[in-house]
Design a protein that fits this description.
Elements (H helix, E strand, L loop, with lengths): L11 E5 L5 E6 L5 H11 L6 E8 L5 E8 L8 E8 L6 E7 L10 E5 L5 E6 L16 E7 L4 E4 L12 H4 L8
Antiparallel strand pairs: 1-2, 3-4, 4-5, 5-6, 7-8, 8-9, 9-10
Length: 180
């Protein structure tokens, strides 16, 4: 029987993310999760892989909402960040609004909806884990996140956290929403 030694460096690929920090892009077959954790700790790579799932500009053109996935390395749960970009200045400023608790898959079953005046941002989706599944749009999409730009008030219906105030269809019924 021939045993083959492989170089660990050939099993990972590093790239620069948008901030110039190093992040682990992927690890190839053969590296267990335990080995990956040790490797990450040793190399100082603590960021996770990210990818855009959805983005949407406000009707007034002042803001862009981004949902950025975080790689979970295990394929069980899903985590993401919601960012808001200010498009009014010459240098785009990105602000983290929300980091999700573990959510259901599949990725890509959600979307942003802006109010016509660009004040409110609503995140809805088909597969979120929410407190009131019956409180959904006519499309069947579940109400997940509501953000008021003027007051910086964030409300979330994720059932895995009680950190945020909840909201219902009644709360959003008087807001005029843009068509996506």
């Amino acid at each position: 029987m021939n045993l083959v030694r492989e170089n660990w460096a050939s099993r990972i690929e590093m790239i620069d993310d948008m901030d110039g920090d190093k992040m682990l892009v992927r690890f190839l077959r053969g590296i267990s999760l335990a080995c990956l954790v040790i490797l990450l700790a040793h190399t100082g790579c603590e960021k996770t892989v990210t990818s855009f799932t959805t983005k949407c500009d406000s009707p007034d053109g002042r803001h862009r909402a981004l949902l950025i996935e975080k790689d979970d390395f295990g394929g069980i749960d899903r985590n993401f960040d919601v960012f808001l970009e200010d498009l009014t200045s010459t240098s785009t400023k990105r602000r983290l609004l929300f980091t999700s608790p573990d959510e259901g898959k599949p990725i890509g079953t959600e979307r942003f909806i802006w109010s016509i005046d660009g004040r409110f941002l609503l995140l809805v989706g088909m597969k979120f884990i929410v407190v009131a599944r019956g409180d959904s749009l006519d499309s069947g999409e579940l109400l997940y996140l509501l953000y008021d730009i003027e007051s910086a008030n964030l409300r979330c219906n994720a059932s895995q956290t009680d950190k945020y105030e909840r909201f219902t269809l009644k709360d959003i019924s008087k807001i005029r929403w843009a068509k996506n």
